[in-house]
Amino acid sequence: MLKSRYSSDERMCDLVCDRYAVLQVMSRFGIALGFGDKTVAEVCAENEVDASTFLAVVNLSAGPGAGEECAADVSVRSLLDYLHNSHGYFLDFRLPAIRRKLIEAVDCSLSDVSFAIMRYFDEYAAEVDRHMAYEEKSVFPYVEALLAGEKKADYSMEVFRRHHDRIEERLRELKNIIIKYYPSGGSNELNGVLYDIFTCEEELTSHNAVENQIFIPAVERLAADGACAERQEPLSAREREIIVCVVKGLTNKQIADELCISTHTVITHRRNIASKLQIHSAAGLTIYAIVNKLVELSEIKDSITDTQA
What DSSP state is assigned to residue 78? Predict the structure, then answer.
């Protein structure tokens, strides 16, 4: 029997086996497999993920209202990273993959219905792109400002709530059109892509639920209480390593190769560093690193000499 609520002292492997959809949550938080019998708290700590935020998202999918109960204890910063990574998943991977399968499953040259289905899907994908681009350009910068202690009077989460359309509804409509009206003689490929559409619809529904039931309330509390309401965590060991690499003049790709992590992870860490320290330039990080004895001045001089050579 599936549980309706999970805690930080349970084994992560048990959670994944109980609800395989957790795999998607893990990937968007940057948590890799291979964690053995470690608990949720231990795995989150090793991957520098806020455990309360991770569990809030997981528990939301486990039962109605479960995530909202945990929303009071989440990290807005962690949620912001999670949602940003979710956008990348849908726009760069999930929707393009469905489109490729749809092209293989329907022959637009043989059926007007097939052509209309492809056009419908492309219009839908463009709509999702616009929806998520709005969040990236308007909503997320507003939240970043709140995290930095700035209050903006020209925007509020109420504006976002009013414009937060349910982007999964048109995908549900497409699914029903294919089921009811696609000409007889469908293929295994079409059934396969239809299955992917069902799954993507569920994923988008879950994505919207996280925004509505966890993200929006958490940001509204942050706006009401001030930046002090957001837990200010110290720099992690990995973040200190990345600061040293930046100060030494390494690019994001070079840092990724040096630390055996992805370039995307490096960018996420750098964004978190800027938020925690309120330092956005390499020159500023250099001063910080020297003052806090993360590097010696001689190391920086050597790296500058090497770069100029």
Answer: H
Beta bridge partners of 39: 11
Q: Which residues pair with 11 in a beta bridge?
A: 39
What φ, ψ does residue 261 adopt, rounded to 5°?
-130, 175
Residue with tokens 């964690």: 35
Contact 5, 62 (CB under 8 A): yes
The per-residue pLDDT for range 253-299, each reduced to its tens digit, is 999 898 888 888 888 888 888 878 878 888 889 888 888 888 877 76
Model confidence over 102-154: pLDDT tens digits?
988 887 666 777 888 889 999 999 999 999 999 999 999 999 888 888 877 77
Q: Let me know: does 54 contact 29? Beta carbons within 8 Å.
A: yes
**H-type helices in the chain, by residue range?**
12-18, 22-29, 40-46, 51-62, 66-70, 76-89, 95-105, 112-134, 140-147, 157-163, 169-181, 188-210, 216-225, 237-247, 252-259, 263-277, 282-291, 297-308
Q: How far apart are CA 6 and CA 52, in angstroms?
A: 11
pLDDT at 204 over 70: yes
